């Protein structure tokens, strides 16, 4: 199958499926090599028109529920199901492993917000994507090995990531940020219990960091939310900004953004960071 678009995959797998296996009788008048489109729609609980638009590429961004229904109706293997999810710009169901794919639609979204520091993280807090303003505020992570770009590892580990991380304090008080990251990781473990890399990350941090072990034993479960953070910048000094964490449904990514109210010192410092990035680009 040379065309790996969502519609082409659905059409190819629909043609492959024996109608008798799906409970439909064969007849001499049946021209379709596999399931008819209306039969697939019936099995998946969707309208015939919607399945037609999906196959023709006129309907985009199907939900995870729609993709799951089609995968069941088409009797896909787990690998094929995952391929269908990826073609839809979604992560495979969460009973698998933490996803690291940033869909093109998310990249387009964060590109439009390029005048703000933005980082995109996986559910285990591995940094997957960042922009120039993120580099200007936090430093350039590209020089770190990928394993060291994990925020939890940078906070509690002993590798290069720990020395890359610029000091950050939370308005919520000492260890509030660290506690929130641990609580978020506990929730991630509950969603991805069979992910060996996530389990190894948690086990390694519990062994290496007494603070992580202590927080792990007492922290609840919850996703990281917004906060007022102060970053110690080597050139601008303390930079206080609103930090918001936006969770992307269906792909389990976190978009971390930094903003400041107009007229504040933080807003002026962001302007200085933008100017410095522009001058470096020239």
Automatic annotation (TrEMBL):
Residues 28-81 form the HTH cro/C1-type domain. This is Helix-turn-helix domain-containing protein. The lineage of its organism: Bacteria, Bacillati, Actinomycetota, Actinomycetes, Pseudonocardiales. InterPro entries: Cro/C1-type_HTH, Lambda_DNA-bd_dom_sf, MLTR_LBD. It comes from Lentzea albidocapillata. One of its GO terms (molecular function) is DNA binding. It comes from the Bacteria. Pfam families: HTH_31, MLTR_LBD. SMART domains: HTH_XRE.
